[in-house]
Design goal:
Length: about 375
């Protein structure tokens, strides 16, 4: 998913025209409710205790549990500098909230940024070259290729193929929030058995991807509704979406019974979230970049991610086995390897393998009873 140097990904299911109301003094954040859209100009407020409804269960019992200033957000983010106060038309003391649902306990940004604010955040403020450099840095590339390796491993189980493992039809993959296609472009090569589609907010980035052989769209709604994909990549996307329930439900329309979806979001497991909130209440100026309410609107735990996907008809991939290499270098290493095998075999048998406790992984349609395993 993107950042200010280069926007990426689907910020909204589609750009909501109803959000295009702005004040003459400042860019606006919005308070969304089931009864309609209520605009609030909190750019001029030092503290704002109003909150939108829960994006998961629609409860209005959503107290603000933390506040952070524009100064905290900008000073904590390596992609922002002092020029962003003018760019976004915010003052250092302007306050932005984080809310917790009193019913389902989900944590989320108290307000949703309007279209003009998003355009300022995700509008290109750097060169194409600098954006590519950021998104193809070794650590990011390693993660992107890991995501694709996991996705392709899951896809391979159900694709029709011959004795050599060659697929009968092209593998259709949708990468939402593809940025500069790290991972995707490795498959979008002429003659390769893949057809790769990308959803990307930035026109300049879409133009770049199209030249590399990818089919590109600005939003999910622009993708042909009749297209069904064999694999979908959601790397750091769901936390940017104002209404993740609607988004994932729309995503289901592009799935067949064997579609595999790779999902990754920042992990706000309870102990980490509580630690961040405690530090903020004690006056810490540091705001983790993955809690920036201008860009990240939902703060998932492993369980809330699982619940969100289950609500749209998807289940986690329960990996059926773990491969180990038994080292013959020493008797002690052999014993250690055997013990790890026994430990993880027990975890799998009990249904408590550690992948269940991560905010990343493969999700499958719930009516797909066969979980994918390793395929050669």
């Amino acid at each position: 998913m993107g950042h200010p140097l280069c926007p990426s990904a689907e910020l909204l299911v589609h750009p909501p025209n109803s959000l295009k109301e702005h004040t003459s003094e400042a860019l606006e954040f919005k308070l969304v409710s089931n009864s309609g859209l209520c605009a609030i100009d909190n750019m001029t407020e030092k503290e704002n205790n109003t909150s939108r409804e829960c994006p998961i269960c629609s409860s209005s019992n959503t107290p603000v549990i933390a506040q952070m200033s524009a100064q905290q957000i900008i000073s904590s983010n390596p992609y922002y500098d002092e020029s962003w106060y003018e760019r976004l038309q915010v003052k250092p003391e302007c306050s932005f909230g984080v809310s917790r649902c009193g019913d389902c306990q989900f944590v989320f940004s108290s307000q949703v940024p309007g279209d003009e604010f998003l355009d300022k955040i995700y509008g290109s403020s750097g060169s194409l070259e600098s954006g590519i450099a950021v998104f193809t840095r070794p650590a990011r590339a390693a993660f992107a290729y890991h995501s694709y390796a996991t996705l392709l491993d899951a896809i391979a189980v159900h694709m029709q193929k011959d004795d050599r493992g060659v697929v009968a039809e092209k593998v259709k993959i949708l990468d939402i929030g593809c940025a500069f296609g790290t991972g995707s472009l490795g498959l979008a090569v002429e003659g390769y058995p893949y057809e790769v589609f990308g959803v990307e907010w930035s026109q300049a980035t879409r133009d770049y991807l199209a030249k590399q052989g990818m089919h590109t769209h600005k939003t999910l709604d622009e993708v042909d509704s009749t297209l069904k994909f064999d694999g979908i990549i959601l790397n750091d996307v769901l936390e940017h979406v104002p209404d993740p329930v609607v988004f994932v439900s729309k995503l289901a329309n592009h799935c067949h019974k064997n579609t595999a979806i790779w999902v990754n979001v920042p992990d706000f497991i309870e102990w980490r979230l509580n630690d961040i909130l405690a530090q903020m209440s004690e006056g810490s100026m540091n705001v983790p970049t993955d809690m920036n309410p201008w860009e990240h609107l939902s703060y998932f735990t492993p369980q809330s991610l699982t619940n969100l996907m289950a609500g749209a008809g998807f289940k986690r991939w329960d990996k059926p086995h773990v491969d180990y290499k038994i080292s013959r270098g020493s008797f002690l290493n052999t014993i250690k390897s055997a013990l790890r095998t026994l430990r993880d075999s027990w975890r799998i048998y009990k249904g408590s393998y550690p992948n269940d406790y991560q905010t990343s992984g493969i999700f499958l349609p719930a009516d797909n009873l066969e979980s994918p395993g390793k395929s050669q």
